[in-house]
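Section 5: illustrative case.
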């Protein structure tokens, strides 16, 4: 009998957008901090960035353009990933 992991705590952890955001932030780690990224999106703390990266929270569609700009990625691509989420 196989036991499946309980993903109720991280429902979006395996989503393409969470993986994409995590990779992009890793690529930018020598350029800007999580706090700088959060501030560019309009948040005062890094908790929201961490939640996006680890799939704890879906990315609100209204945040996609600012997040794309902060990460230096195509907004259309990020928007498609957000819709899939």
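Designed sequence:
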């Amino acid at each position: 009998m196989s036991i499946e992991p309980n993903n109720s705590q991280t429902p979006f952890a395996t989503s393409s957008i969470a993986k994409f955001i995590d990779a992009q932030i890793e690529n930018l780690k020598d350029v800007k901090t999580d706090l700088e990224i959060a501030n560019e999106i309009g948040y005062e703390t890094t908790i929201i960035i961490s939640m996006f990266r680890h799939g704890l929270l879906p990315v609100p569609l209204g945040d996609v353009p600012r997040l794309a700009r902060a990460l230096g990625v195509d907004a259309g691509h990020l928007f498609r990933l957000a819709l899939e989420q």
